Protein: MaoC family dehydratase
Organism: Mycetocola zhadangensis
Amino acid sequence: MPEETERTPIEQRGLYFEEFDTTARYLHRPGRTVTEADNVFFTTLTMNTQSLHLDQAWSEKQEFGQRLVNSMFTLSTMVGSSVAQLTQGTIVANLGFDSVIFPHPLYHGDTLYSETVVVNKRLSASRPGQGIVTLEHTGRNQDGVIVATAVRSVLVHCLDAAP
């Protein structure tokens, strides 16, 4: 066995601009099973007093018959699950979101599985050594039903210009 100091260090990181593949579908695993505690904590932490997230008795009388997972938790978890695979340590900035959609609710006990495709990528005209990558994130529950989609633009380092 090689000595510890002889081993090649490999650090987990995201992708540099050149490594983003416009033909790939990146599957972010493991999934995340959402608990009641997750939803209540996130909802109260963000000062969202929406009864659909907090009041079981009231929510039972509403259209869905139960509390819904806060859609901002769904969005945050869907995007967050992509970080280790796509942008960990290679991102310069999150530039913005477009087309955030929640076509189906996420409930306590559901498992969120996320995936990402690269919609577009181009070198930055104003920031040498960096590129803009447009990502489309999709979140599905354990039954494969789409619960969220979002298009996100990120500024990332190019391989040769990484700090």
Observations:
- The first strand starts at residue 25 and ends at 33.
- The domain at 12-161 is CATH 3.10.129.10 (Thiol Ester Dehydrase; Chain A).
- The two ends are 33 Å apart (CA to CA).
- The chain has a mean pLDDT of 96.
